Amino acid sequence: MAYSDKVVDHFNNPRNMGSFKKGEEGVGTGMVGAPECGDVMKLQIKVQNDTIVDAKFKTFGCGSAIASSSLATEWLKGKTIEEAQKIKNTDIVQELNLPPVKIHCSVLAEDAIKAALADYQKKADGALTEAE
Amino acid sequence: MKLPIFLDNHSTTPMDPRVLETMLPYFVEKFGNAASRNHAFGWAAEEAVESARKQIAKLIKADPKEIVFTSGATESDNLAIKGVLEMYKEKGDHIITSSTEHRAVLDTVKSLEGKGKATATYLPVDKFGMVSPDAVRNAITAKTILISVMLANNEIGTINPVKEIGKIAKEKGILFHCDATQGVGKIPVDVQEMGIDLMSFSAHKIYGPKGVGALYVRKKNPRVRIASQMDGGGHERGMRSGTLPVPLIVGFGKACELCEQEMAKDSARLITMRDRLEASIMKDLEESYLNGHPTNRLPGNLNISFAYVEGESLLMGMKDIALSSGSACTSATLEPSYVLRALGVGTDLAHSSIRFGLGRFNTDAEIDYTIKKVIEIVTKLREMSPLYEMAKEGVDLKSVQWAAH
Fold this sequence. Notes:
The complex is a heterodimer of chains A (132) and B (405).
Chain A: H1 5-12, E1 27-34, E2 39-48, E3 51-60, H2 63-76, H3 81-85, H4 89-96, H5 103-131
Antiparallel strand pairs in A: 1-2, 2-3
Chain B: E1 5-6, H1 17-23, H2 40-60, E2 67-70, H3 73-87, E3 94-98, H4 103-114, E4 119-123, H5 133-139, E5 144-148, H6 162-172, E6 175-179, E7 198-202, E8 213-217, H7 246-284, E9 288-291, E10 301-306, H8 311-317, E11 321-322, E12 324-325, H9 338-342, H10 347-351, E13 353-357, H11 364-384, H12 386-392
Parallel strand pairs in B: 1-11, 3-4, 3-5, 5-6, 6-7
Antiparallel strand pairs in B: 2-8, 7-8, 9-10, 10-13, 12-13
Helix pairs in contact in B: 1-7, 2-7, 3-4, 7-11
């Protein structure tokens, strides 16, 4: 299968690859996929004042899965929580020019974004309840 | 050293220049139809075909009259299985085969089953990918008319105990078909000693041209008969009609002759290179697992699963080396290799497998480059893998509740 230049670029030069330190504040983590299915994505966001100031990923999967998550971290940085909710898998498909057989990679990336946001929200709500 | 490097010699092989040389006169000068019995053009073509038939028969210790030319091993598999089922349908309709056969065998059997023309038993294999002769014996019923077990597997290179299976087939009076596509020319094959009644193989896996193959059909003890699957001029003793592709057959013959003459030397060289590749990779990369039989496998085969990294991304990271993977992402079906699954390899590790297929024209420098690249990319992708990170933190990945999708 031929890959688009953008997929190759993200694969060779992944953006924001890595993990935040354990227990770092304002971090939401989303982990989606399964090893049996051949792809697992871990996406993390760091939020300050409702804005995503940093994002990181680690992905087990094909080149398109790696590129989708790398792109997602790029897009997340600087967005508010509300803006981040609006990222759609179809945007990723379009940007990376993914073929039909790789659309599931973009779906997984959207799921990872949603999971990271939900995790952050849960932690933030928890912190709020404690403060009260 | 020239890039890209071809390390996918199970899929096909580059043609040996010596093979091409023998083929060239048969395109423009000696272009006759081997079936033209009454002029010099036809005689020259027929002579070339018969000489190739001898070269091919010699490699597998058969009689030249037992060689039926086809378009390739897929057609040979179809012809053997469908031909036997149709010819001997009065005797029964049961086929015994194995779960790791090539799709050309499995899908042929399944298609016959689907049409109600056959019943089948798919034998499991052991953890090395080997079919047990006892399992073959136990699967035999009064209705069994054919056993079809491959010589060597295309993914993991494991060599089956074909001789023992042949003995059982003979003892029970059941025909034995062997798909020997990966084995012929690489390891010694003797259809007499192995008790094979029908055998499929092709030219392009042994440095010959694409588009030609053969089916060995035993002529005596017993005389095997098959119903033709292609109607027409009655070529190949009525078993396969169609004008013979003379240049391809000439090349096939030469390729077989070269294999026969150079097998010992080639295979010793391949084993040395392959073992070095294996040892160097395994030494530097923890949690790399060999798939297939540790010793009883094809000289040029090496199949390894690299835990925590996915096969297609490995291939993408080594795009100047032509390799293949059992990962679902490299197949049209999105299912990981059924061969690895049949060995009991977990789905996760099946996704992480790479097949190295070494051949006659690979060099030590290419192996050095490959070793370096593999270690580099596996290390890089493990750094990127959340699974590797979790495993390093001591998380048991099997205990994690994954959200399967």
